[in-house]
Amino acid sequence: MEEGINYYVPATALAIAVLAKFPALVRGWRNPLVRSVNTLLALTCAAFFFSAPPTIRVVNQLTGISNFSAPLVYSIVSAYSCACVVLMEHWRADPRRRARTRARVRAWTAGFALVIAAVVLCFRLGEAPDERLLDFELYYADTPFIREMLVIYLFANAVAALAGTIACWNWSLAIRRSVVRDGVAAGGRSLRVGLVFLVISFLVNSICSMAKIAMIAASWTGREWYALGRWILTVLSLNGLVAACGLLLPVVGPWLAAHAVRPLRDFAALRHLRRTVRPSPSTARHPVLLTAPWHSSPEQHLMHRLTNLHDWMLELHAYCSDEVRERAYRGARRDGAPEPEAVAIGFAAMFAAAADSRRSGSPSTPEQCVRASRALRCAETEYRDLMIRVSRALPSLAGAEK
Fold it and tell me: Are residues 76 and 117 in the same domain?
């Protein structure tokens, strides 16, 4: 099992992606782009699973044919290469020329169907009696019909991988231009990073396919490059993880960013405000701290921290001065700070001063407290992330005072 772990890890990750995308596939089955994405994920998962040496051994035993897994894996990988090209065709398709896109898709599909047929036919005509789990290409590189099968498969895979490299690179550049022009769209960053991973994966696949062809050609002249074969096998197994990352990031990246990365980042950013407004045990009226279990979601931890902060700010209400807030706000605007940043700086200065007043036992006037509360409610209505902005402004405010 250990010899197949590098294949089963990406296969498992991609199987999770297939299951995650299955509801979208059911809802959008009529959309060719949706079908292409899910087909690509499924074929990639199958390619890694059936390429694992333990799976190869089991398939050969079940069929009773030595090396039956070779044409099976080559057919799956060829179908995967076709799915890559078809996905790129659907992506760059002009809605006004759908017939032309369908024609190109049919041409690619027919071409790779011929490749698969040629692989099966060559394997049927050739002889491969000795089971080879890892070095099938090099072991049978000089065997009639098997060598033709290998060259056809590898050359088709290299061409498709090169086409995928160019398409994914152009796609990532198009996303970058749209980000510069229109700003970051939801999921755009995850898609672009995933495309970069796919560019690397496709390029490595293309190079390894051409290296295998060179290795096979060298065997025809009596040279055996076993070291190159082992190197290629290691690179391809690691490249599988790169491909898995490239295919998974656009799928799970937006969800992780919304439900894990952003809440954790905001939770950490609130630490400055927490240190400022948290009362000491001697001054707290209600020293009850709302905490979430360690296994709770990042969103739950963030919600509990915000709840605690609002409770502590309510206790600090009697020490808040709107005059301090207004003075800091106007100073920030004079220094050229944008409106949201200036608002945050104003409240940061107010809370910092209120915390000092609470320690010295000097409450503010009722009028100043009411005006401060009214300004805070208005700001929270306008800026949903006000507390995070205020917390981030506190360190710079402390540095400016020093």
Answer: yes
Q: Which residues of 16-41 are buried (b: 16+ CB within 10 A; e: fewer)?
A: bbbeebeeebeeeeeebebbbbbbbb
Q: Say whether pLDDT at 257 is over 70.
A: yes
Between CA 386 and CA 388 the distance in angstroms is 5
Same domain, 394 and 245: no
Note whether 285 and 323 are within 8 A (CB).
no
| Domain coverage including residue 348 | 270-401
Contact by Cβ (8 Å): 97, 104 = no
Among 241, 265, 289, where does a domain finish?
265
**Do residues 118 and 53 share a domain?**
yes
Q: Are residues 186 and 287 in the same domain?
A: no
Q: Which of 303, 334, 332 is nearest to 390 (CA)?
A: 332
pLDDT value for 24:
67
Cβ contacts of residue 253 below 8 Å, gap of 6+?
187, 189, 190, 191, 193, 194
Residue 39 near residue 83 (C-beta atoms within 8 A): yes
Return the CATH number at 76.
1.20.1070
pLDDT value of residue 12: 81
Q: Are residues 344 and 274 in the same domain?
A: yes
Q: Which range is most confident: 170-179, 212-221, 243-252?
A: 212-221
Question: pLDDT tens for residues 49-89?
Answer: 898 888 999 999 998 888 899 899 999 989 988 888 887 77
* φ/ψ (deg, to 5) at 301: -60, -40
What total of structural domains would you count in the chain?
A: 2
CB-neighbour burial class of residue 272 (10 A; exposed 0-12, middle 13-18, buried 19+): buried
